[in-house]
């Protein structure tokens, strides 16, 4: 397994007229990594991908692949292969012709191509389906053919543009692990674009969270989830309950926030913001639904929250409780189903407790709207 | 229930009328091609004959016209499809704000009358020819070149419309995918876009050829020394038409039927093969043991195609040995007899009429003595002496039944009988 070829984005700006699609992106992607760009639609992640694959020239800055500047090099000369959102299989070519298109371009004989196609078809578990047309395949099979076609070109970097978004849930979950498997087997760099944080977290070595052309945070899944850099990252990745307020007191890497609704609450300052939060600043406090546990009703303290229950839901593995939250929004609490009895508290107040370490304090910022 | 059946009947009646309107002229014209009278007519049926086909194939001008039409057609197809494809590609690539304007400009030749296109082509290329200092026999003033250019100006627009329809369904991601996989732009065009466009290109080519073949109003200005079939036909019709033209039309209809059936049969077969492939198992596909349906199985169009082909061969076979000479001779004889009979009848009728008139005049003679009938000869002789008619008047019309008008003026004045009786 080779170490793979890394990709670097240096001060990358991409503008369309007055609109700035990508603003000063700096990313280092290690060779052989599975790297994801995660963000809502329209945040510029596909634009970055197109700049890497060569369909777009950056307005400023550089794209480096394996240390080589790609300026002025067309998509057909770059060591990348792109898997399109709609897969873009050639509808009039058979599966094996699709897969070996890159060899046909180089003038390989039909026999060679057939042999290579059979190898790749074995790899994607579609042996013997080479003579079908793409229209005769199911969604998941097409997906795998598109991957095989890209791999056949032996790229150093494989770019995937939301390839799973068109699939149904079951297939999507299956393809996640399959993609990861394939990536480990071929050992090349994968750059993956998605708006689905589940996909990004499960598959990636590293994730870049993007918002409106700006990269908010780069890190592995755990860091992104547990230690977000910005309010956007905290609210976009996974579910989170937000408490707005102002900083009352900073104690080392912890902070006391005077929240609008629930009084003074303690939280840990996210690691990138330690030392940046001062008394009197607007702040946001994030607590994940699963970070709460039940406490005796009416308990007061800097890590207790009391609110009225609006709605209750049984999801199998968890009980979801929706409580009156801030600004008319609901606050979600997920309690694991451990076989305990659970009485309905609908319409009644309830007190919850959380571990200060599991609450993250961040400077106030834009939230993700879902 | 009653209403329902009434509804159905009226639908069938409507369909019958519709198809009669649509196909009736073609059927009647086809029939005239096999009827022997030298003016094309379907009724009365005289003799089955194939002589109009041989007359057609001996007509140098028609054959030359067909040859020129095909030449012009091929040139127009090549030029129009190429320009149409370029135009269609441009339309999808162009800056969106310009698209509507561009579309209007490129579609305009369809709206311009063909006559105007013909004249302007002629004038424009004549100018160019002169500017280049070329003579009247240069390539630029050749009828073939001018006709191809002139027709292509608007046929290219038709082609573009056909091609744009297909191109709009083209996913530009396919081009990007090909580029991404290392193909050059030329390779992408050849290996991805062109195969995708092939059905539309074929349709556009057929359309272009037909439009070129039937074009008259543009060609009439540009044909020069290359008169096409339509030009030749138009010139012929001026001096009266023969069933040879019907024969030509019949051949064209037959070719069209063949092409349509062939196309239909092909499409149907493709559908059947696709269906068979869909239900095939992987092993069958792999080992090549998949039994594809035969060409004729459950394919009405293919069966019809074969039947029509057989019928054509049979008819051509019959035509080579069949001689309508006897029948034509019979018909001639019948006609001759008929004519004679008719003359005979006419004579008898005239004789009768004359006799009647005489009788009437005899009866009315005293009363109408001074007032001659307007139908009577205005000569002098018999007016004043009606008795002369008795002798000479009965004979004259009988001998010259067709020259009844001859007696105007001094018709029977010089008749010897007149003198005699006077």
UniProtKB/TrEMBL annotation, chain A:
UniProt keyword annotations, A-Z: ATP-binding, Nucleotide-binding, Transport
Entry-linked Gene3D superfamilies: 2.40.50.100, P-loop containing nucleotide triphosphate hydrolases
Name of the protein in its database record: ABC transporter ATP-binding protein
Pfam families listed in its UniProt record: ABC_tran, TOBE_2
UniProt xrefs under SMART domains: AAA (SM00382)
ABC transporter domain residues: 7-237
GO molecular function term, any single one: ATP binding
Automatic annotation (TrEMBL), chain B:
Compositionally biased region (Basic and acidic residues): 348-360
Ranges of residues in domain ABC transmembrane type-1: 66-263
Major place of residence: membrane
Entry keywords, A to Z: Cell membrane, Membrane, Transmembrane, Transmembrane helix, Transport
Listed Polar residues bias regions: 373-393
Membrane topology: Multi-pass membrane protein
Signal sequence bounds: none
Annotated segments matching region Disordered: 348-422
Chain segments annotated as transmembrane: 12-34, 70-91, 103-125, 145-165, 192-213, 241-262, 301-322
Keyword Transmembrane attached: yes
Location of this chain's protein in the cell: Cell membrane
CDD domains: TM_PBP2
Listed PANTHER family: PUTRESCINE TRANSPORT SYSTEM PERMEASE PROTEIN POTI
Family, as annotated: Belongs to the binding-protein-dependent transport system permease family. CysTW subfamily.
Protein's name according to its UniProt entry: Spermidine/putrescine ABC transporter permease
């Amino acid at each position: 397994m080779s170490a793979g070829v890394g990709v670097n984005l240096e001060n990358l700006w991409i503008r369309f007229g007055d609109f700035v699609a990508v603003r000063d992106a700096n990313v280092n992607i290690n060779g052989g990594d599975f790297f994801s760009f995660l963000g809502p639609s329209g945040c510029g992640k596909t634009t970055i991908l197109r700049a890497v694959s060569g369909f777009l020239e950056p307005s400023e800055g550089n794209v480096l692949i394996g240390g080589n500047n790609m300026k002025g090099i067309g998509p057909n000369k770059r060591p990348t292969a792109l898997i399109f959102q709609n897969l873009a299989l050639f509808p009039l070519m058979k599966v094996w012709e699709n897969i070996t298109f890159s060899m046909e371009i180089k003038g390989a004989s039909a026999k060679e191509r057939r042999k290579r196609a059979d190898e790749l078809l074995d790899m994607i578990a579609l042996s013997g389906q080479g003579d079908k047309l793409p229209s005769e395949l199911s969604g998941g099979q097409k997906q795998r053919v598109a991957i095989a076609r890209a791999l056949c070109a032996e790229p150093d970097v494989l770019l995937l543009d939301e390839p799973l978004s068109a699939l149904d849930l079951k297939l999507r979950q299956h393809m996640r692990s399959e993609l990861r498997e394939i990536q480990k087997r071929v050992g090349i760099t994968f750059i993956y674009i998605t708006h689905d944080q589940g996909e990004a977290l499960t598959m990636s070595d590293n994730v870049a969270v993007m918002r409106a052309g700006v990269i908010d945070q780069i890190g592995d899944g755990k860091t992104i989830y547990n230690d977000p850099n910005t309010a956007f990252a905290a609210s976009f990745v996974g579910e989170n309950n937000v408490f707005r307020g102002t900083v009352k007191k900073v104690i080392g890497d912890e902070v006391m926030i005077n929240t609008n609704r629930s009084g003074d609450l303690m939280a840990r300052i996210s690691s990138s913001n330690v030392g940046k939060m001062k008394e009197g600043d607007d702040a946001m406090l994030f607590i994940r639904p699963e970070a709460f546990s039940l406490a005796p009703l009416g308990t007061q303290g800097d890590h207790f929250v009391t609110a009225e229950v609006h709605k209750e839901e049984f999801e199998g593995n968890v009980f979801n409780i929706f409580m009156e939250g801030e600004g008319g929004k609901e606050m979600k609490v997920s309690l694991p189903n451990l076989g305990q009895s659970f009485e309905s508290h609908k319409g009644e107040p309830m007190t919850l407790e959380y571990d200060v370490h599991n609450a993250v304090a961040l400077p106030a910022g834009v939230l993700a709207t879902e | 229930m009653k209403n329902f059946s009434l509804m159905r009947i009226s639908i069938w009646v409507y369909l019958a009328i519709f198809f009669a309107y649509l196909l009736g002229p073609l059927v009647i014209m086809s029939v005239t091609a096999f009827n022997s009278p030298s003016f094309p007519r379907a009724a009365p049926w005289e003799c089955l004959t194939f002589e109009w086909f041989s007359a057609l194939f001996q007509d140098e001008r028609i054959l030359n016209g067909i040859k020129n039409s095909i030449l012009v057609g091929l040139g127009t197809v090549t030029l129009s499809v190429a320009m149409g494809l370029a135009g269609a590609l441009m339309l999808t690539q162009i800056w969106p704000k310009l698209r509507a304007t561009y579309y209007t400009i490129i579609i305009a030749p369809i709206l311009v009358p063909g006559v105007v296109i013909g004249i302007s082509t002629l004038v424009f290329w004549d100018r160019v020819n002169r500017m280049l200092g070329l003579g009247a026999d240069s390539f630029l003033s050749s009828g073939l070149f001018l006709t191809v250019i002139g027709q292509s100006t608007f046929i290219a627009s038709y082609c573009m419309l056909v091609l744009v329809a297909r191109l709009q369904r083209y996913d530009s991601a396919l081009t990007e995918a090909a580029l991404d996989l290392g193909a050059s732009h030329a390779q992408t065009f050849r290996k991805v876009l062109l195969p995708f466009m092939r059905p539309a290109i074929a349709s556009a080519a057929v359309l272009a050829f037909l439009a070129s073949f039937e074009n008259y109003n543009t060609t009439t200005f540009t044909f020069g020394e290359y008169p096409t079939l339509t030009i030749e036909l138009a010139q012929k019709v001026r001096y009266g038409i023969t069933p040879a033209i019907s024969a030509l039309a019949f051949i064209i209809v037959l070719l069209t039927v063949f092409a349509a059936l062939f196309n239909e049969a092909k499409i149907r077969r493709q559908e059947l093969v696709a269906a068979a492939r869909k239900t095939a198992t992987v092993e069958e596909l792999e080992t090549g043991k998949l039994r594809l349906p035969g060409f004729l199985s459950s394919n009405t169009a293919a069966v019809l195609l074969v039947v029509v082909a057989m019928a054509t061969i049979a008819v051509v076979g019959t035509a080579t040995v069949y001689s309508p000479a006897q029948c034509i001779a019979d018909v001639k004889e019948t006609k001759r007899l008929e004519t004679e009979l008719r003359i005979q009848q006419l004579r008898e009728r005239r004789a009768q009429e004359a006799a009647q008139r005489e009788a009437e005049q005899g009866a009315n003679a005293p009363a109408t003595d001074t007032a001659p009938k307007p139908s009577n000869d205005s000569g002098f002789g018999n007016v004043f002496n009606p008795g002369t008619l008795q002798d000479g008047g009965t004979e004259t019309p009988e001998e010259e039944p067709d020259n009844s008008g001859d007696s105007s003026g001094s018709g029977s004045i010089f008749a010897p009988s007149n003198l005699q009786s006077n």
